[in-house]
Design goal:
Blueprint (H helix, E strand, L loop, with lengths): L1 H5 L7 E2 L2 E2 L2 H11 L3 H12 L4 E4 L7 E4 L10 E9 L12 H13 L3 E9 L18 E7 L4 H10 L1
Parallel strand pairs: 5-6
Antiparallel strand pairs: 1-2, 3-4, 4-5, 6-7
Length: about 160
């Protein structure tokens, strides 16, 4: 809903028959969802690049990325969104052990998707008051990393074919 209000300007949200401003809506979403800024930054990043992000909880991820949408294609990626600072340090909402990362990677592979880590990078000098407005999005950057499993037997078979 926030993307339709903020990025496209094609939706108005009302509370008690009064329209909410973008700032009011931003603050409400932040109060309902503690990681809203990172989640929305990732959503906005992919949506503005032509992807169709959908909820990914069914597959243990934050987002599923579709090329044109669920009616046309299966999702290509399972995306895990992580907030980090500009030195790639952060307190992840879901700390990964090697075992849990391997499990998520297997789940993703079993449903024919690729696992993508999306790091939302917060500059060190970004203040809490700046996060109270969607203008903070201009200061955030994203970086993606594809996680893939190395399967020794498959690698050995491919090497034998050469």
């Amino acid at each position: 809903a926030f993307f339709l209000v903020y990025a496209l300007g094609c939706l108005s949200v009302y509370h008690n028959q009064e329209p909410l401003s973008i700032i009011q809506l931003w603050r409400r979403f932040r109060s309902f969802q503690p990681d809203f800024v990172s989640s929305y930054a990732a959503y906005h990043h992919y949506r503005s690049r032509g992807w169709v992000p959908k909820a990914g909880a069914k597959y243990g991820a934050d987002l599923m990325l579709y090329r044109k949408g669920p009616p046309f294609y299966h999702a290509s990626y399972s995306v895990v969104v992580e907030r980090v600072d500009d030195a790639f340090r952060g307190a992840p909402l879901r700390p990964f052990s090697w075992r849990s990362l391997a499990a998520l990677s297997r789940i993703t592979a079993n449903v024919s998707k690729e696992l993508m880590m999306c790091y939302v990078i917060y500059p060190a000098d970004l203040s809490e008051s700046e996060l109270d407005s969607p203008l903070c999005l201009h200061r955030l950057t994203t970086q993606e990393v594809i996680v893939s499993r190395w399967i020794s037997s498959r690698e050995r078979t491919e090497q034998d074919d050469i």
